[in-house]
Recover the amino acids of this structure.
């Protein structure tokens, strides 16, 4: 049966149509034993599921993952594996970022255990990780693999690295659609496997590829337990802390801050869109509340709504790209206005560490549990009116603001405490952080994803590593190429 790509931007129709074609392709490819095509189509399914984000697990895809894992287990059965090496830990990082994310803080903690680290990342990251390279100096091993070639090749390479070192412990820190990493971890024998759940609010695949799932807050732990079906005994909790590079110098501001009160915000701009433009309504009210307020946003993406506010409040609203010194900007700001309806967890923690009050409008339960003493701080609000009332007082009452800033002191786990908990985790498979039950309401949160889903959510399946999918989605491919061309012409590549 043939399926036509639709020009009608009906989100559900676009998702269903694309998913159906990918699902059929997996079935046909498996029957023909074309496992490379099957894996690329499975990459595509996980990608579009992540962008659509209307469920937290795809059980049909999980069965396919289990099938492919069994196939490769039989294929590689002849590989001789010695006993596990208790002095070695494998850390597989499919992001390959240096400072952004959690890889650096986990690696620092693992190095403190005295074990040798085998770090595996995409070849595209080679030479671009000065921080991680410094953390892993000495006897540790850094291996880069080609993630843009055939999926089977990188899967095989990950498995052969595992066979070479046969670590007693392995961590996966991966994209939700990383089939080669997921299936490779499914082949590990005799190794305790941990998954670092960075995207606790969204779909990801590979629920059978780990022994323990590390959550950073109760919200994610409850999602995994109730919606992903992960057994309670496989879920652990370990809050994280944001890494700060003390060598970075302040790059300045695009305006004179004298006599001004800086309100700062940042992250991908898609996090501010939706929910009736609530974020921008709040921003306008803050600007009206105090004429000395200037607002700065640092981040990429759709800035159409931000531009409207810039025109309305000329000379008081500014937009810059992401900068490595954003932490130093926070130190100069009165308040940090968290994104909404998608809350920025790491940015919220960076603000707390810098002494900049992270004003956060809770979006159901998604914005909760990011700071340790969140309830006591009183900086997370259930309504926009409550937030604005408190912001008005914070901007006008220095004593009140300073009182709140003092409370930020213990809101983020310290590096030493994190390291101690990591050592306990890999020794006893648990931490000192209990998981609390929550009454979750995810309906409205998932609805926002559906409203944002468009052609870009579908054409993301056409990545450089999924080239076998190109001929099957010509219209999506053309749309993607035209979009990128227009961005380049506009000077925003």
């Amino acid at each position: 049966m043939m399926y036509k790509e639709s020009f009608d931007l009906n989100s559900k129709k676009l998702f269903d149509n694309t998913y159906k074609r990918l699902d059929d392709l997996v079935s046909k490819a498996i029957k023909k034993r074309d496992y490379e095509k099957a894996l690329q189509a499975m990459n595509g399914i996980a990608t579009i599921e992540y962008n659509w984000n209307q469920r937290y697990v795809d059980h049909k895809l999980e069965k396919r993952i289990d099938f492919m894992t069994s196939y490769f287990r039989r294929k590689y059965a002849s590989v001789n594996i010695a006993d596990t090496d208790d002095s070695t830990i494998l850390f597989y990082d499919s992001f390959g970022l240096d400072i952004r994310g959690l890889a650096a803080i986990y690696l620092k903690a693992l190095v403190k255990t005295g074990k040798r680290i085998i770090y595996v990342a995409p070849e595209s990251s080679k030479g671009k990780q000065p921080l991680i390279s410094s953390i892993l100096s000495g006897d540790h091993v850094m291996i880069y693999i080609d993630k843009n070639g055939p999926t089977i090749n990188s899967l095989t390479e990950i498995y052969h690295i595992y066979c070479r070192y046969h670590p007693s412990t392995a961590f996966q820190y991966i994209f939700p659609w990383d089939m080669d990493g997921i299936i490779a971890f499914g082949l590990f024998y005799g190794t305790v496997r941990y998954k670092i759940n960075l995207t606790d609010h969204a779909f990801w695949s590979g629920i059978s590829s780990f022994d323990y799932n590390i959550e950073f807050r109760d919200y994610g732990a409850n999602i995994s337990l109730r919606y992903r079906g992960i057994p309670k005994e496989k879920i652990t909790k370990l809050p994280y802390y944001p890494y700060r590079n003390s060598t970075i110098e302040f790059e300045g501001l695009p305006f004179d801050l004298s006599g001004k009160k800086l309100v700062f915000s940042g992250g991908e701009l898609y996090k501010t869109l939706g929910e009736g433009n609530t974020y921008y309504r709040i921003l306008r009210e803050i600007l009206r509340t105090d004429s000395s307020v200037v607002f700065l946003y640092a981040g990429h993406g759709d800035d159409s709504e931000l531009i409207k506010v810039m025109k309305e409040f000329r000379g008081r609203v500014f937009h810059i790209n992401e900068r490595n010194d954003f932490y130093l900007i926070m130190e100069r700001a009165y308040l940090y206005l968290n994104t909404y309806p998608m809350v920025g967890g790491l940015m919220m923690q960076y603000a707390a560490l810098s002494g900049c009050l992270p004003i956060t409008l809770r979006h159901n339960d998604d914005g909760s549990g990011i700071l340790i003493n969140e309830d006591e701080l009183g900086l997370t609000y259930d309504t926009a009116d409550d937030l604005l009332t408190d912001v008005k007082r914070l901007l006008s009452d220095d004593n009140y603001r300073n009182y709140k800033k003092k409370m930020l002191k213990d809101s983020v786990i310290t590096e030493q405490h994190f390291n101690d908990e990591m050592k306990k985790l890999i020794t006893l498979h648990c931490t000192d952080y209990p998981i609390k039950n929550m009454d979750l309401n995810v309906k409205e949160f998932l609805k926002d994803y559906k409203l944002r889903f468009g052609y870009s959510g579908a054409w993301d399946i056409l990545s450089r590593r999924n080239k076998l999918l190109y001929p099957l989605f010509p219209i999506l491919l053309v749309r993607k190429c035209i979009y990128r061309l227009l961005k380049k012409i506009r000077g925003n590549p």
Remarks:
- Confidence is low (pLDDT under 50) at residues 1-8.
- The first strand starts at residue 85 and ends at 93.
- The two ends are 38 Å apart (CA to CA).
